[in-house]
Amino acid sequence: MKSFVEEETPAGGFQIAPMIDVVFVIMLFFMVMAGAVKVENELNTTLPGSTETSSATDFVDEITITISESGEVALNDEPFDSPTSADLKNLRDTLMRLKQNADNAKTPSVVTIVSEPQAKYHRTVAVLDALAAAKIETVTFSVSDE
């Protein structure tokens, strides 16, 4: 006599219904994501390389103005005015001539101000005032490593 109810053990075969469900879910995922992909546009860029030109290329002469800690201002390593001069008249007049020559030659005037780390701020402002009086607008700044 059996007192316990015998349970039937399911057959251990391959279940196809859950596999079909998984395949449909994956297919649905890829169909939805295919619409969200952004298409990359081709950018027409030219990489630097060697090219030949038919005309001469003009190079810009860069003017360097150095401001030292003592207040001395130098244009291309040539000192201008005294360290106590507030208006930098000689520098301003020279910059005006350089700007006029650059305009006559149709080349841009590029100025780099190199200041020592402990240089006084009012000297930098005086140099900027001289550049503004000469109508030079292309100015970059740099700090001396020394």
What does this protein structure show overall?
- The protein has 146 residues and is α/β, with parallel strands linked by helices.
- It has a domain of 68 residues.
- It is 35% helix and 16% strand.
- It has 3 helices and 5 strands.
- A 5-stranded mixed β-sheet has the order 3-2-1-4-5, covered by helices on one side.
- Strand 4, helix 3 and strand 5 form a beta-alpha-beta unit.
- The longest helix has 21 residues.
- The radius of gyration is 38 Å and the shape is elongated.
- The protein starts with 15 loop residues before the first helix and ends with a strand.
What layout of secondary structure does this protein have?
Blueprint: H1 16-36, E1 62-67, E2 73-75, E3 78-80, H2 89-105, E4 110-115, H3 121-133, E5 138-143
Parallel strand pairs: 1-4, 4-5
Antiparallel strand pairs: 1-2, 2-3
Helix pairs in contact: 2-3
Order of helices and strands: HEEEHEHE
Structural shape: elongated
Query: Helices and strands: which structural class?
Result: alpha/beta
Strand portion:
15-25%
Q: What Rg, in angstroms, do the CA atoms define?
A: 38 Å
Distance between the termini: 105 Å
Poorly predicted regions: none
**Largest sheet: number of strands, sense, barrel closure:** 5 strands, mixed
* Strands side by side in the biggest sheet: 3-2-1-4-5
